[in-house]
Each structure stands twice: as structure tokens, then as C-alpha cells.
Write a structure and sequence with these properties.
298 residues, mainly alpha, ABC transporter involved in vitamin B12 uptake, BtuC, 13 helices
């Protein structure tokens, strides 16, 4: 079989295009997820979409609409519990995650024909992506990049110290809400392609791989998106030639790239002295001075 045979199949090209857009979304958002330690939130939102997906399926509504409503409701409720209650952020996420998942399972248990849809929700069906889905992912990618650009200073200052962000008038609470919204958008937009169980892998692995080689957050986002696109391409090729599940192959490839990147970085660190100016840092630099500089020159 010629090496380029997969690219002659229309569904493969659609899957590659849609998966690449997912990689861009997850690479940009995943950078902040890793920096802020929000992996649990992404997983909880992914599973918390089950009630909305189940209801949409039962009522004959678009599955993406049900997933979006459920995810937004969950994100808003998490914020409300944190502001008005005495529960920690992780505790609020954990309780609501279990509650939403339980409601979803109850709804699914009353629908005898839901097995296929549940499988698609968990593992995705990237090979079934259509041009309309690619257009939706393209819009989601543009929104993600735009929001990250607009809130960049707020995100950086909040990640460094929320008190500094408040002093600079950057409203850390609003920045946190925007970041939760981006995680929600990334999960909702990506789950038709790779599923809720695997989207967390694309949120985390490419960003982890990129952090080994970059010193600034924008560079990490770009490199994470590139790692994600490579993972999508290699995962789809592995699925084509080995007959494995496409979504799982992509996620496994992303994890493998993160592991290989960490190993390569460790090998490079042994060869390059620590005082060498060109040695890459191990994490993006969050520099409060650079955040404040525009305020000083204004």
C-alpha cells in the first residue's frame, strides 16, 4: 500500500483538518491548563456534559447543543459554589462532577438505544468529521485565540499573583471566569472528534511537551499546537495502518510525544551546562514585570 494512500481518502483529510483545529484549540488552552493546574476541571467538564448529551439525544436535538448547555451550566455552578459556599475549588468541582455524571447515567439507563452515542461521547469519532464540523472548529479556534490575546496580561498576572493582578486593575476573578470559559469551549468543541475521555490528553500532553523547550507562554502555545497537530497526523496514520481506534491512537501518540520530549530535554540538559545562555528553560516564564511594564509607560 503506497504511503500516501490515506490522504486520497476524503474522510481521512477531513479528520486531519478537524483534528488539527482541535490541536490548535487544545494547545492554546492546554498551556494555561498546565500552568494553572486545571486538569481536573477539564476532565470534570468533559464528563459533566453527559446529561446534556443524553437529553439532546432523547429529545432529538443537536448533540453539540446539549453538550454546550450542560458544560456551561456546570462551569457556572462551580463558580457559584466557590463564591457563595465554604467549599474549596477542587471540592466544588468533585461534587458537581459526580452529580452531573450520575444524572447522565440515570438518563442513559432509560434509553435502550443510547449505547452507540455513549461510546461516541467517551471516545469520539474523528473519522466521521464533516465540513460543517470543521467550520465549527475553525470558529472555536478563532474565538480561543482572540480571547487568549485579549486576556493575556490578566492571565499572566493572575497566574503569578492574584494580588498583583488586582493592583494592576486586571480583575483576576474575571480572568479566571474567562479561562474556565476557554476550557469549557475547548472540551465542548473537541469532544465530537476525540471524546471526553481523550480530550484531556490533548489538553495536557502537547503543552507538557512544549514546556520543555520554551521560556515564554506564547511560544509554548505555538509549540503545543504543533505537537498536537503532529500527534493527530501520526495517530491517524497509525489508526489507518494498524486498524486501531483513531481517537485513542491520537491520544496515545500525544502522550508518547510528551514522554519523548521530556527524555530529549533531559538528554539535552546533560549535554548543555546550566550556565549556557542558550539552554532552554524547563517552564514558561511568568514575568510580573513584563505584565506591569505597559502600565508604567502609559
Amino acid at each position: 500500500m503506497p504511503p500516501l494512500t490515506p490522504f486520497a481518502a476524503e474522510f481521512f483529510v477531513h479528520a486531519l483538518a478537524g483534528g488539527s483545529l482541535v490541536a490548535v484549540i487544545c494547545g492554546v488552552v492546554g498551556t494555561w491548563v498546565v500552568i494553572r493546574g486545571m486538569a481536573f476541571l477539564g476532565e470534570a467538564i468533559g464528563h459533566g456534559m453527559l446529561p446534556g448529551v443524553a437529553l439532546a439525544t432523547v429529545l432529538g436535538l443537536p448533540v453539540l447543543f446539549g453538550a454546550a448547555v450542560s458544560a456551561v451550566a456546570m462551569s457556572a455552578t462551580i463558580g457559584m459554589l466557590q463564591r457563595r459556599g465554604r467549599l474549596s475549588y477542587d471540592t466544588s468541582i468533585g461534587l458537581l462532577f459526580v452529580a452531573m455524571l450520575s444524572v447522565g447515567v440515570i438518563i442513559v439507563s432509560h434509553s435502550r438505544s443510547f449505547a452507540t452515542d455513549a461510546t461516541a461521547l467517551l471516545f469520539g469519532d474523528i473519522l466521521a468529521i464533516r465540513p460543517g464540523d470543521i467550520a465549527v472548529l475553525g470558529v472555536a479556534a478563532l474565538v480561543t485565540i482572540g480571547v487568549c490575546a485579549a486576556f493575556h496580561r490578566s492571565f499572566v498576572a493572575t497566574a503569578f499573583d492574584s494580588r498583583i493582578a488586582t493592583t494592576l486593575g486586571l480583575r483576576p476573578q474575571r480572568a479566571h471566569v474567562a479561562l474556565v470559559g476557554l476550557v469549557t469551549l475547548a472540551v465542548v468543541a473537541s469532544f465530537p472528534a476525540v471524546g471526553t475521555l481523550l480530550v484531556v490528553g490533548l489538553l495536557l500532553a502537547p503543552a507538557v511537551a512544549a514546556r520543555a523547550w520554551t521560556t515564554r507562554i506564547p511560544s509554548t502555545m505555538i509549540l503545543a499546537a504543533a505537537f498536537g497537530i503532529v500527534a493527530v497526523a501520526l495517530g491517524l496514520l497509525a489508526s489507518w495502518y494498524l486498524g486501531t481506534a483513531a481517537g485513542a491512537s491520537i491520544a496515545a501518540t500525544a502522550i508518547a510525544l510528551a514522554t519523548a520530549s521530556a527524555g530529549a530535554r533531559a538528554g539535552t540538559a546533560r549535554l548543555i551546562p546550566r550556565n549556557t545562555p542558550h539552554a532552554p528553560a524547563t517552564a514558561p516564564r511568568v514575568d510580573a514585570v513584563s505584565v506591569a511594564r505597559p502600565e508604567r509607560t502609559a
